[in-house]
Design a protein that fits this description.
By secondary structure, the protein is of the alpha/beta class. Helix content is 39%, strand content 14%. Bound molecules: ligand SAJ.
Length: 461
């Protein structure tokens, strides 16, 4: 507020200032002083690291999640997300800077709210933004003038403007005037020990310059680098480019792996050699397929968005086709390996070694192991799995029995062992010493001597 002692002109300026300007300035001051209360909707692998980072930056944080058990655990300072320790959650709770609730009512006390809910695919592989819609419709009744709303969920360009904006405006809130709206893609990489919330640059794109500025002020309190773009669509598209880039390059190296098998080359040696090029190349490695909730999914949000327009998404479609064929290629490789041992797939005991979607994580969502297990099971193999990070594993309708330890006796009992995820801490040398036949889809046994008959995906050597 302008003090009464100020010259008339300043007071006139203050009075002349639009209410929107003062709302925006008031919010900016709260964000910069960390006096703002920040809501985070969705306390999963994206929301909880963000909520913890905001609390540690000095904000008062209200975490909202529909999972009442998760809320209960968090309220006791217990984290169920590998990348956020319970100690950090407990410290934030103890400092009175973080409280978890399963009620959206907590939004009413927030100056800013960030939505971090899943954006999966439907059964027909079309985008499923139902979580965004339901989170938006749940928070809007508690939205108020002077609030900043940010969507982080990965989605197709246009979602923030077409799905979130109208629902806020239905409450007589006007974007850029008395409510501020932006998109900022999440860049949480599970199990990444080097990059976390603080040191991963954050892209933000608001519906108006004020929206962008306020979103940048919020993240600027917890993230070292904030990158402003001109619109929410630019931010939504940047995220899709990031992950489509990965899906396409993984598809390329998977195709090179198939060529190497035919050309009697070792793709792992070829990639290693190519990776010595200090510029203009980025190594990717082949595998039994792609899993997780980002790479197999995000590119399809983009291809869906342009469906019906006169543009094609050929790279996305071909990469998706190649990547989705890798589980069958792996299952066929296992069948050929068993055949070389004089064993039909039917009735053979097969151990799946590592079923998480990538190394050193416990997440099995979209894991290629699901398809490999299903394909071998359909051909009559007796499947079990061993994965130190995964307590239970279902492959589309059937529960795969779990092998609890892989000692020499256990390893030698299987007709074939399939390395699908190359977690660290597994004794792959012992697998080769005691296993009868090993199919290595991740080159985890590279350079090791082998008593077992061995095949490596992508190696025709
Ligand atoms: N994969 C390969 N070959 C590769 C790389 C990955 O087969 O060269 C497979 C993995 O085994 C996995 C799938 O692809 O099944 C996805 O792997 P990913 O390394 O891309 O890991 P994600 O799904 O956890 O992707 C996340 C993404 N992070 C965000 O979206 C914020 C992605 O943008 C990151 O680049 C990626 O982590 C990362 O770099 O680890």
């Amino acid at each position: 507020m302008t003090p009464s002692s100020a010259p008339k002109s300043a007071r006139r300026n203050q009075a002349a200032q639009s209410p929107a300007k003062s709302l925006s300035q008031d919010l900016l001051a709260k964000l910069q002083s960390r006096k703002a209360t920040v809501g985070v909707v969705g306390l999963g692998y994206v929301g909880l690291p963000l909520a913890t980072a905001f609390a540690e930056a000095g904000f008062s944080v209200v975490g909202i999640d529909v999972d009442a058990r998760r809320v209960k655990r968090l309220a006791k300072g217990e984290s169920d997300i590998d990348d956020v320790s319970s100690e950090r959650v407990a410290a934030a709770v103890k400092a009175g800077r973080f409280r978890a609730t399963d009620s959206y009512r907590g939004i009413a006390e927030c100056d800013a709210v960030v939505v971090c809910v899943p954006t999966p695919l439907r059964k027909n592989r079309d985008p499923d933004i139902s979580y965004i819609v339901s989170a938006t419709e749940s928070l809007v009744p508690f939205a108020h003038p002077g609030m900043l709303v940010i969507l982080e969920s990965t989605t197709y360009p246009g979602t923030t403007r077409e799905v979130v904006q109208p629902r806020l405006e239905a409450r007589q809130l006007r974007i850029g005037e008395n409510v501020f709206l932006a998109f900022s893609p999440e860049r949480i990489d599970p199990a990444n020990k080097k990059f976390g919330v603080k040191n991963t640059p954050k892209v933000v794109g608001g519906l108006t310059p004020d929206c962008t500025k306020l979103a940048a002020a919020l993240y600027g309190a917890a993230v070292d680098t904030v990158v402003e773009v001109s619109s929410p669509e630019a931010a939504e598209m940047a995220k899709l480019l990031e992950n489509t880039f990965r899906a396409v390059n993984i598809g390329l190296v998977n195709e090179i792996a198939l060529l190497c098998e035919r050309l009697h080359l070792d793709v792992w040696e070829v990639v290693r050699a190519a990776a010595t090029k200090p510029f203009g190349f980025m190594p990717f490695t082949p595998g039994p397929g792609i899993g997780g909730h980002c790479i197999p999914v995000d590119p399809l949000y983009l291809s869906w968005r342009v469906r019906g327009m006169d543009v094609k998404t050929r790279f996305i479609d071909i990469a998706d086709e190649v990547n989705r064929a890798m589980p069958a290629h792996t299952a066929n490789g296992v069948a050929e390996l068993l055949n070389e041992c004089g064993k039909p797939v039917k009735g053979s005991s097969v151990l799946l070694l590592g079923v998480a979607y990538k190394k050193n994580v416990s997440d099995v969502r979209e894991s290629p192991a699901i398809d490999v297990a299903k394909l071998l099971h359909e051909r009559g193999a007796e499947i079990t799995y061993f994965d130190p990070h995964v307590e239970s594993f279902q492959a589309e309708g059937f529960q795969v029995p779990r092998t609890l330890k892989i000692d020499p006796k256990s390893l030698s009992s299987f007709d074939a062992i399939v390395i699908l995820t190359d977690h660290t801490g597994v004794d792959y040398a012992a697998v080769l010493q005691h296993g009868k036949a090993v199919y290595d889809a991740r080159n985890a046994t590279s350079g090791m001597p082998s008593k077992a008959k061995r095949r490596r995906l992508g190696s025709g050597v």
